[in-house]
Amino acid sequence: MRDSQILLSFYGESLASSLDFSMKLALNGLPVALFTQAPSASTVEKFRLKDEWNQNQLFGRIGALGLLGNSAQMSPEEMEEKLPEVLEDISDLNAGFFQYVTDYALHAEPAHGSIGHAIDLAYEFYPSNFIPLLIAAPSENCLSVFGCLFKKEKGNYQMLSQRGANTSPNSDVQAILAKQTYRPVKLFDVFSLEIKDNANRVESFRDLHTESGEFILFDILKEEHLQEVGKLVCELKKQGTQLLAGSSGMAEAICAYFQHSGKLMKPSPPSSPGPVDTLVAVVERGENFPQAQLDWCAQQDRYKVFEINPANKEEQIAQALAQNGKNIIFVVENGTKDFTHLFYGKTLRSFLENSNFGRLFISPNSGAINRLGKMDVQAMETLYPLAYGLPICLLHSTRDIFNNRQLVIGDISTQREDFIERVRVGK
Questions:
Q1: End of a domain among 232, 260, 288?
Q2: Digit-coded pLDDT (tens) for 21-64
Q3: What pairing do the DSSP bridges indicate for beta strands 279-284 and 327-332?
Q4: Which residues 6+ apart lie within 8 Å of 413 measured at CB?
Q5: Is 241 helix (H, G, I), strand (E, B) or coil?
Q6: pLDDT per residue as tens digits for the range 114-139
Q7: Same domain, residue pair 395 and 342
């Protein structure tokens, strides 16, 4: 891999998928920055990573870049309105690969978050002979067998429930995509991946792949399959940017190939940034509200919870500033958009400027991109994984109060009840 080239660019359909994908790339030796807006070529050229663990690779430069997106919540009409511009902007960077990044659970219905429709739009900017599709990832205990997805739950693999499904779970990826696109979806199954001879495996792939622009869905039953997928994708790639689709399993497959070929070195796992004396948390009321995690903190002497609404925000902020040595949690009422924007754009910033905080945690009800925008965050680099889609990140911001600060952002409602404390200790 040449130092001057961006190997891979991506658009994440959600906050969790974007952060998970970024973390997996970094863990596999490909330094990455996750941007909140599509960067220009000059921005990418000048961009340098700040954390020492990330700087050890490519001398602080990035080998991959991503754009934090929210297309998982978009209808096909909204995708047509919003995606082409950002896809075109990213295509101008001429990366070797571009991936539309998904979560492990697909949207079963085409009404929102249609991966098929998103790929149809992306294909206009990244025409490719075939479109590799990989949803499974052994590192997340998610496997694909004969085109069906299975997730390990309580020690056993179970059929993965699909988002948006109001009937029995349908884990058949080909059946799901058939509702979302007219593009053919062909399966390169576990038997094909198990072919020992590389020439015979390639011949099997060529026999399967007969139409330009079709999906090739890859099974993954074990970690060793990742390298085989990466080898097929990279060695059969044509000139230009190769379009990819799927989860961070694809990132691991591409990196596995470059590691095996000696062009990429997998680093030692990162060390935890460690605990901080003071954590400031912002939890928004709404869907997926982390009540159990909030209740746990309320029972601990080292935490103080403040309910924030438009009528009491000045009083509550003043009381919070008087809490020496306490970890502060602001529970923000689900009010108007103007109030939420004002809180992140002014109220929170004013509080942080007058407090000695070590790490920031945000559990947004929605609109993570807007929250980061109000903090003038341009990009994030991932430091240390706490859970799926919940790494500790280092911020690149034009505001001093946020620049070089550590942030964890995302939905924690399904995490263990002491997860906010785990964010504080970096565990």
A1: 260
A2: 999 999 999 999 999 999 999 999 999 999 887 766 655 689 99
A3: parallel
A4: 288, 289, 290, 291, 292, 293
A5: coil
A6: 999 999 999 999 999 999 999 999 99
A7: yes
